[in-house]
Amino acid sequence: MTRREKIEELLKKREYSSYELSKILDTKLKTITEDLKHVAKSKKGKFKIIPAICKDCGFVFREKIGKPSKCPKCKGERISWPKFRIENEQSSCN
What we know:
3 helices; 94 residues; three-stranded antiparallel β-sheet; alpha+beta
């Protein structure tokens, strides 16, 4: 199983941040970020991003794969990592 396939399988089970994925797969964060971009393209419509949030003022960032460095509202640097998941691929047809 390739690293991207492993990422897909993990994201089908629950949400993870790119930081968590890099630790689980023992891979550099930059590599995981690139892999997530490819997974997002291949799972278009099913790949979901839970955006980063400023822990100081609660500002919610745009849905992006990378982690922001600074809050535009309060200039704080305590930012949560964005999280990712792949929604269930089962059809809802009866």
